[in-house]
Amino acid sequence: MMNTIISSTTPLYTLSTSSVLSGIPVHSIRQYIDKGLIIPFRKESNRNLFSQVDILRLKFIHKLLDEHGLNIAGIKSLFALIPCWTIRSCPARERKNCMAFFSDTYPCWEASEKGPFCKNTNCRECEVYRVVETYPDLKSFLRTIIP
To answer: pLDDT tens-digit profile of 39-57?
Structure first.
């Protein structure tokens, strides 16, 4: 018998199950995917699977929309302001070649040009994408990295 370790980023849930677990309608989840707010795991059959981190992100996005009054563009801009270079300890020499460092309109996982430090990183597994796993809001996270 083989032991399988399931991490918080293991894709387990279908779209409909993710909808139930997060309390967000399927059509809204599809919209969040299309807008780059969430990165589901895509199977060869083109079906999406979601992890526990994705469920937390969905709930976080929903909170920003409903309780804080942001729209999707505002949420995307907020995610774009997460200092990925600080979280990942990206060397300064690599930042000059990384669009995630310079852009304030899209999050790092959507950057067209990434520095060598992140180029081959699976964004779904990255600590930047997973920030919602540890922190209930972005401000509590920022307090940990800004003195």
So the answer is: 999 988 889 999 999 999 9
Q: Mention every residue, 6+ apart, whose C-beta is less than 8 A from residue 72.
A: 31, 32, 35, 37, 65
Q: Give the C-alpha separation, 81 to 146, whole Å.
A: 13
Is the separation of the CB atoms in 24 and 101 below 8 Å? no
Average pLDDT, the chain: 88
* Domains delineated in the chain: 15-145 (1.10.1660.10)
Give per-residue pLDDT as tens, 91-107. 888 888 888 888 888 88
Q: Choose among 56, 34, 38, 30: nearest CA to 137.
A: 56
Query: In this structure, is the dihedral angle defined by the CA atoms of residues 46, 51, 53 and 55, taken in order, positive or negative?
Result: positive
